[in-house]
Amino acid sequence: MTLQSDQIASEDFEEADWTRLLDEYDYARPQRGELRDGLIMQIEENGVLVSIGTKREGIIPSQDLRQMGDEFVSGLRVGESIQVYVQDPENRDGDLILSLTMVQVARDWEEAARLFQEGGVVQCKVVGFNKGGLLVQFNRIRGFVPASQVAQLHGRTAAEERQQALQRMVNQEIPLKVIEVDRDRNRLVLSERSATQEWRKAQKQRLLTELQPGDELSGRVNQLTNFGAFIDLGGADGLAHISELSWQRVNHPREVLSPGQEVKVLVVEIDRDRERIGLSLRRLQPNPWDTIDQRYSLGQVISGPVTNVTPFGAFVQIEEAVEGLIHASELDVDPQTQPRDVLQPGQMVTAKVISLDRQRQRMGLSLRRVTEGERDPDEEDDTSTATDLIDTLAELTDASDTVQSVEQPSVEQPSVVADTEDVLQAESDTLVDADTNSHPSDDNDDVVESVSTSEQEDALLDRHTPVAE
After folding, report:
1. What is the Cα–Cα distance from 181 to 193, expressed in whole angstroms?
2. What is d(CA 226, CA 252) in angstroms, rounded to the nearest whole number?
3. How far is Cα 34 from Cα 27, in angstroms, rounded to an integer?
4. I want to staple 223 with a disulfide (CB 3.0 to 4.6 A). Which of 147, 230, 289, 383 is the partner?
5. pLDDT band at 338, cuts 50/70/90?
């Protein structure tokens, strides 16, 4: 009984000892991608032999050592402890291949995993771009930032503008947050939008609190739309409406701005409740209408291209940001002819300045008065009629004065004066009616047309000549 029990106990001990040794061997078996602490056993021309606690030594190839630099390699000593990366547990020759350069790569993956778990932010350099987004360098790992995660790009950004924006970001340092780590697939995805979201939120609140209308700032054009440009003020975007980009007429913001351009802007409005900032570029530029009367005067003949033709007239560009209106009644054609039948956009014309309003930023032009000379025949007739009317009224006034100057001894004669005034009024009305009937068509039609279209003209004039606030 005792002998048999000792034999069984011995067998159990041997089995337990073998299991423990096997576990230790399996624990020590190197795996691809592991970081191991090793001891330099030998330094040779073709590599360095390192013991990492297994039954065989690993080798660091000479090509891997060259990537570390001559200074690092010359500092290696036999018996020195180093950390190595298991690149291949067993190659075709049965060798255990180790790497020093991949140690840093492995540490970078560990750092990326830590940032992913903690939500940290890291600064990375943009090294390239493709159709899908940006390529960034995270230490020794190449990371990718999808275009949807680039802060300055939006869903409305056109494909060509997106590629141009990505190209401009190359060599820039940008803040990033890790949003995906897959070491097995060598996949590291980062986001600029997530990294800047909280920072920009805090900056926006600061700007909304500190900014005041009239402040001048520097900013960067972030996005162009049909209605204006969004300017990055360093944490918050402000909108410069298309009418606030330039004193000249702008059809699209791309005519005067480009994404990424650095600009000076003026704060014109702050809506803290809606968190909106209104900006202007043109108000920092000299307004050509402020000195318009120093360059032009009534009767001056100017030339310029037609920029727009409307039912009531045509607009002519006098200089940059200054346009004049040729009313339909001032065309050198039949009054019934439509402006679009005789003038076309881009056509060069010569016209005379007939009105100038610096405050309202309006300039009236005429084509027919250029060819008719200094005085219109109709104007001469009107002047003659008006002169006759004035002379007649003067004679009647003298008669009234004579009547009033006659002395009456006791009874006042209001009836005589009243009758005389009635005669004067009747004569005046008769002359005015006669003058009006002498020009029954042209002038009256112009007045009716002017009244009926005045609101439309003012609306379109405001579009062509925005008034400075």
Report:
1. 17
2. 6
3. 12
4. 230
5. confident
C-alpha distances (whole Å) from 144 to each of 163, 175, 418 are: 15, 13, 99
H helices then E strands: how many in the chain? Answer: 11, 20
Domains, the chain, ordered by start: 30-99 (2.40.50.140), 105-196 (2.40.50.140), 211-284 (2.40.50.140), 288-372 (2.40.50.140)
Q: How do 262-271 and 216-225 pair as beta strands?
A: antiparallel
Q: How far apart are CA 93 and CA 68, in angstroms?
A: 25
What letter does residue 387 receive in the DSSP assignment?
Answer: H
The pLDDT confidence band at residue 399, using thresholds 50, 70 and 90, is very low
22 φ, ψ to 5°?
A: -65, -40
Q: How far apart are CA 343 and CA 327, in angstroms?
A: 12
> Residues with Cβ < 8 Å from 352, sequence gap 6 or more?
299, 300, 301, 302, 365, 366, 367, 369, 370
Q: How far apart are CA 238 and CA 191, in angstroms?
A: 23
Mean per-residue pLDDT, 194-198: 84
% helix / strand / coil in the chain, to the nearest 5? 40, 30, 30
pTM for this one? 0.41
